[in-house]
Design a protein that fits this description.
Blueprint lengths: L1 H8 L4 H16 L3 H49 L5 E5 L5 E4 L1 H6 L11 H4 L6 H4 L9 E3 L2 E10 L10 E8 L1 H12 L2 E8 L2 H6 L3 H19 L5 E4 L4 E7 L3 H6 L4 H6 L11 E6 L5 H17 L4 E5 L4 E5 L11 H16 L3 E4 L6 H17 L3 E4 L8 H8 L8 E2 L1 H7 L5 E5 L10 H6 L2 E6 L13 E4 L6 H12 L7 H15 L8 H12 L4 H4 L7 H12 L2 E3 L3 E5 L6 H11 L7 E8 L2 E8 L5 H5 L5 E2 L3 E7 L3 H23 L3
Parallel strand pairs: 9-10, 12-13, 12-15, 13-14, 15-16, 16-17, 19-20
Antiparallel strand pairs: 1-2, 1-5, 3-4, 4-5, 6-8, 6-9, 7-8, 10-11, 18-19, 20-21, 21-23, 22-23
Length: 670
């Protein structure tokens, strides 16, 4: 740098002297020797004067630069020695302290000698990896004694030939007061919770006045006792809704105890044996009370859509779930179904066309529900289409059966053709899923302005937002049951084609395992409606038949199953198997005495698929949620990309351990 500066300050006039000498030579060639000699003398004199001036100027410049560099070095030394911050220099390779100022000595205990001292001895909480990564600021605060510091620093590479490693210089800024203030601010931020007695109608309102008063009094006492330790504001907003406002420092305790209020309220049972249940929605990390209230409302809606009897915590980014282990209880009112049917009829009538799609690799429940929605559109005189991509699915037999009906000629389109058919007035109906990442065509979902969702799976953290109609009932046995209820209000059973009734019946039979699991009174009402419409179960059973190879593969999976914990069967297949085969194997395992829940794992390309079933109180949907899966309490699944079967098996066992650890915590008396 020094030599570059010197060269920059010396003018480059050599070319000018060369030109002058050239003119002198030309003059001599023209015969005017005297003039040429005179010119040469002038050039030589000028050159001598320039050289003398340049030498004198370089001497002055050298003296000025030496003084400047000396001043900089002195200033650097002075600023280092008199730095107002604690400063320490150490070698990154050996962690050996080279030098520190007095302030750092006082910070670390007043040591007078720093020779042969390691940074790990002076500051055990300090990690120097951020310096090796080229950063100038430590990502975390460092504790020294009872003080906290923000550390800044830089590294210097050794000169060529030196064997020592990088030398680091760090400056320690005391931020204790600022950090304490920040911690107090974080701890005292408001948290707003809404508590809802989600089965008030079933457990309390239908009882005699004295029983109702006693139950409500007991529930309120338990709510108050649970809220009391936080010293917050707890008040009743409505007959079955309460507001709880407290500080964020107490939220960790409620999470750690996994919201024990859920179990406490469940102990209040009416004379008919129905326990009271509560859903808790918590809003946290909001900028205003209005935003906190909105978060809490969304959390309560999420809890109810997942079956109630659980707590949901929402911040500005995501949801957290607690509880939700109990299976959904069927609601006894049909008011919602009637309202949804009316709204659905209006949406279909106003649409230019109706497009139905299910989840990826749709099953018979998704296809049957799609056919039922198309039946409604046909009665309204609205053009209707079903998305069917050219891939193998578990419902190919049902697809082919429906496609043979004259009324369904040209109804099945692939996702690209459906995109071309959609316009600003098209209605997209999503069936058998509520998660945007699981639909058959995400682009189609984002393109359509009007969207209706019909689903029976418990809602996950991601769901289709802003739908014009959301008929979501996690207690229902299947999506076909929900669509059958809509049909019951919108059309006569005789208006339903026999093929459509059988498609809906097939979905019902699939998800209820031939009406043996997850059935309620409304399940059989839906089946009765479909039977009156001409649905023949003997014909439908043909769709569930499998060939000999699949049957052998199914029993091979069952043969390799191993027990985990007390009543969990896990079968991991190293070879790919059919999705239907894996699901049937999981179902078949439940027929074995002593097995309450089953999990079947198998590779499928670059992903691992998990099929789970439960016959006991074990909620397989809660278990598979951490693995990215979903479903409901009795039947769930997951698709995990980028992992092997063994890796997913380890993750599944860890999820099972966490689930049962939480269950054991819930069972402990409070």
């Amino acid at each position: 740098m020094y030599q570059k500066l010197k060269r920059a300050m010396v003018p480059r006039i050599g070319p000018y002297f060369a030109v002058m000498l050239a003119f002198t030579g030309v003059t001599a060639l023209l015969g005017d020797v005297q003039a040429a000699v005179a010119e040469l003398i002038v050039v030589v004199v000028l050159l001598a004067a320039f050289v003398a001036t340049t030498v004198r100027r370089q001497r002055e410049m050298d003296r000025c630069l030496e003084e400047l560099m000396g001043s900089i070095d002195q200033a650097t030394r002075d600023s280092t020695l008199n730095c107002p911050l604690p400063l320490v220099m150490f070698r990154l390779d050996t962690d050996e302290v080279v030098w520190s100022n007095d302030r750092f000595l006082r910070v670390t205990g007043g040591q007078e000698r720093m020779f042969d001292t390691k940074m790990a001895d002076l500051a055990p909480a300090f990690d120097s990896r951020w310096l090796l990564e080229g950063k100038n600021e430590c990502p975390e605060e460092v504790e020294l004694g009872d003080r906290r510091y923000q550390v800044f620093g830089d590294t210097v590479r050794p000169a060529a030939g030196e064997e020592e490693g990088l030398l680091a210089t760090t400056y320690w800024l005391d931020v204790t007061e600022l950090a304490d203030t920040r911690d107090i601010y974080d701890a005292t931020r408001p948290v707003l919770a809404l508590l809802l007695l989600d089965n008030y109608e079933d457990a309390i309102k239908t009882q005699d006045e004295n029983v109702r008063s006693a139950m409500l009094s007991e529930v309120i006492q338990r709510l108050s006792r649970w809220a009391e330790p936080s010293h917050g504001v707890f008040l009743r907003m409505d007959r079955d809704r309460y507001l709880f406002l407290f500080e964020e420092q107490y939220l960790a305790h409620y999470k750690e105890e996994r919201f024990s209020l859920l179990d406490s309220v469940r102990e209040v049972v009416n004379p008919a044996g129905i326990p009271a249940t509560v859903s808790i929605g918590v809003g946290v990390d909001g900028d205003t009370f209005g935003e906190l209230y909105r978060f809490a409302n969304l959390s309560v809606e999420m809890a109810l859509s997942r079956g109630g009897d659980q707590a949901v915590v929402k911040n500005r980014f995501t949801f957290e779930f607690f509880g939700g282990r109990s299976k959904e209880a069927e609601r006894r009112t049909k008011v919602k179904s009637r309202v949804m049917a009316s709204a659905m009829g209006e949406l279909v009538a106003d649409a230019s066309c109706l497009i139905v799609m299910g989840h990826k690799s749709p099953d018979m429940d998704a296809v049957g529900a799609a056919v039922g929605v198309c039946a409604i559109a046909r009665m309204k005189g609205v053009p209707h289409y079903i998305v069917r991509d050219h891939v193998t699915t578990p419902a190919d037999g049902l697809y082919d059966r429906v496609a043979k009906l004259p009324q369904y000629e040209g109804v099945f389109l692939d996702s690209q053709e459906a995109m071309l058919r959609a316009d600003s007035r098209s209605l997209l109906v999503v069936v058998d899923t509520n998660r945007p990442e699981q639909v058959q065509a995400r682009e189609l979902l984002e393109r359509c302005n009007k969207v209706a969702v019909i689903d029976h799976h418990r809602r996950a953290a991601t769901y289709i937002e802003g739908a014009d109609l959301n008929f979501h009932e996690p207690y229902a046995s299947s999506t076909c049951e929900l669509v059958s209820e809509l049909i019951g209000y919108l059309m006569e059973p005789t208006d339903l084609l026999t093929g459509e009734a059988e498609a809906l019946m097939a979905g019902l039979m699939l998800d209820t395992k031939n009406f043996t699991m997850r059935t309620g009174g409304r399940t059989f009402e839906a089946a009765a409606l479909l039977r009156r419409a001409g649905g023949d179960t003997s014909e439908i059973r043909k769709l569930f038949q499998t060939d000999l190879n699949d049957a052998v593969a199914k029993y091979g999976i069952i043969q390799n199953a191993k027990m985990y914990r007390k009543d969990i069967a896990i079968a991991a297949s190293a070879k790919p198997v059919g999705r239907v085969t894996a699901a049937q194997a999981a179902d078949e395992l439940l027929n074995i005495a002593g097995i309450g829940a089953s999990f079947v794992l198998y590779p499928d390309g670059e992903r691992v698929v998990v099929s789970a079933r439960s016959l006991s109180a074990t909620n397989v949907q809660v278990i598979l949620e951490p693995l990215g899966g979903g479903g409901n309490a009795g039947a769930a699944g997951a698709q995990i990309p980028g992992k092997t079967v063994d890796e997913v098996l380890g993750d599944l066992k860890a999820a099972l351990d966490d689930y049962f650890a939480g269950e054991e915590t819930d069972e402990q008396p409070s």
